[in-house]
């Protein structure tokens, strides 16, 4: 499809949160006139995914007003709490643009939309061996890479991840690649155990979690989960908080043995490259690294649900509130947009 000069505009459809708890598909004319002259690319979306933690907060209107600016995604339209077009997981085919990108599949941090244009610099071509269906894990893998940089496990460490969702799984997957690191995942949802069996990581209920861990990484976005992390870390152990709670407050027992045990509590967030790698890795470098890890077909076990793009207004509410047995929810776009 060549949108310019023959078709300077095309019809595109996008998912919007009209107000907290209510979504809709909007249609609009997409201006493609700059594709040939401004180093832009025209992309037809093929697959997307829900980032359940963040997008649940956005969908439910739980982004604190203090974070409205910091929480904007790269190509967001509208403002919190709504109407807002929000999302950052899109894998699509370049229909028009620079010759070295045309007809290639790429990843882009773009909201849920069938057709869109972005600067060519905003896309990352998929490496060989990474199918478009699996590449939607790239955003979460990028976060996992950043968390691993912040946690800094070394050979011989014991690592526990509290929270068995997509991010927790990818963190465990990366931690397991460090030589002689013992990795376990703790989650109350027994339905997720088969996922961890497939990647060779120990899985257990919180009641059976072992303490004395060198590093504990939290991804459950629950107060109970973070409290558990304090009990699982060894004295002088490192706790890395990778959850985002939106507008919820969390209370921790820091007046007991927290100080005498000299525990370290570290916040990790993907919005900035970890200080450990900031001088050597750009955002583009980090994304390319994350995509390179997605050649392993074992990661396909993370896809527990798939929904059609047009069903997002109806289906998103159920995934925003119910996480039982849910890992990655993949979005499939229609072939004919």
TrEMBL record:
Keyword Metal-binding: yes
InterPro entries attached to this UniProt entry: GroES-like_sf, NAD(P)-bd_dom_sf
Keywords linked to the UniProt accession: Metal-binding, Oxidoreductase, Zinc
Gene Ontology MF annotations: metal ion binding; oxidoreductase activity
Cofactor: Zn(2+)
Source taxon at top rank: Bacteria
Entry similarity comment: Belongs to the zinc-containing alcohol dehydrogenase family.
Protein name: Zinc-binding alcohol dehydrogenase
